[in-house]
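We now fix the convention by which a protein and its fold are recorded. Here is one such record, which you should read through line by line:

>
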Amino acid sequence: MSRTAPARRLRLGLPRRVFSQVLLMQLAIAAGVAVLATGLFLAPLSNQLDDQAMRRALAIAQTTAAEPQIAEQVKDTPPLPSGPVQREAERIRRATGAEYVVVMDWRGVRWSHPTRSEVGRTVSTDPGQALAGKEIMQIDSGTLGRTARGKVPLYDTHGKIVGAVSVGIAYDSVRARLIHAIPGLFAYAGGALAVGALAAWLISRRVQRQTRDLAFSDISGLLAEREAMLHGIREGVVALDRAGRIRLLNDEARRLLGIGDEAVGRSPDEALGDGRTADVLAGRVTGTDLVTVRGQRVLVANRMPTDDGGAVATLRDRTELEQLGRELDSTHGLIDALRAQDHEHANRMHTLLGLLELEMYEDAVEFVGEVVGDHRATAEQVTEKIEDPRLAALLVGKATVAAERGVALWVSDRTRLPDRLVDPSGLVTIVGNLVDNALDAAAGAPHARVEVELRTEGRTAVLRVRDTGPGIPVEQRELVFTEGWSTKEPPAHRGRGLGLSLVRKLAERQGGSATVGDAGGGGAEFTVVLPDALAEPQPALTAPTSQQAAEEES
């Protein structure tokens, strides 16, 4: 026997699409509001119609009681179905459309009634308040059913109460007026519901376009995934609204830019200050893989506009890659220098071999002394003036590279730098970038020369690097410190236009400055001033006196 799969139970509930859900909710709200408004309108309308009927009955009763002959006839004639009071009351009833006009004496005996057989009988409701001189309005039930009533006292010509007048308006007529008003109310409510339905449809269509017709559960899932992705990726993400204000930062962006939640709601200029980074985020600088420097970090930024007029910028930290690139440049330079030294060493060995073969021993000894002396002189010249070992080693290596490129690297005689640097790594970066830049400018020029002067004024270090290159025009002297600006073709592994920008940022970070001007005799002269670059000198240790030594021994 084959078994059939159990039938799937139908699930009743809201549809998944946002458009349908919003439309149904809006329609339910509009219908509820329409029903509530109709009910709230009908309740006071019923009370208002009741009040109008009671006031109308009271007015008819007051008008009837105001006729003096009725009071006199109640005093002088008996209560007869064909009496003058009955005839006058019926005339008034027919003229006003009232349900009844009852005239009674001070005992509550009727002198008039629409049912003639009731004339002469006592009224079915208590007339005490009216006979006591009060005017009454009420909804009550009597022999003619439920009516809206008005009761007033009946005075004779001497002002004495001789009876009362009671007028009733049939309650069915009041209800009929109310029922008659309901279709109009429903028409207005239906019109309001139709307008609400149209508005709900338009709103739902707009929500559908903005949410890409996703379900609320899908949107919730996307938001959760977005939060996890934004805070989990190792790229900085900055979202900006259509006004250019920052509306979102992930953890990596906060770390790379050095800002926190206080930047949200502010423009990049307000959050980051003036600079290329703010220009890139604001869209004033366009392009792909834009290189910018923030503090000591080298960042690569890309900016993508969004459909709502805002933008999303991504930031990648390329500081380590940039450092590796610079190390690679230095390595290439050293390799070229070693290759040149190898070639030069081979030539010198051949020369030495020739002198030995010719038995010119004294000339050979003199030649070896000259070669060794040149290298020793260069190293001694640097180390005598610069006591910091890292900076001295840098300049010795740069001198070898300069010699290979046909440029004379000279350390000025005024250079004096003690071994008390607060940030030696920063100064090494500054000197290396400036010397590399000067070598690039001077290479190929006649009498190519680069001079480095590094001296101190108290705790302030002043660095000057001069070259004999073409110089820098006045209008470009600020541009050379701008990130990404360069007159050279970028190498394959990294961008150009970062070295001088990094020099200025490092100098400004220490409260100093970096400027460029003309060097004497042509070329450019870069000047970097670093306040508080040197640590306080340590007090010299004095040798103990003979008396102190004796005391210590004892």
Notes: Residues 18-65 form the longest helix (48 residues). The radius of gyration is 54 Å. Confidence is low (pLDDT under 50) at residues 1-12, 489-496. The domain at 233-317 is CATH 3.30.450.20 (Beta-Lactamase).
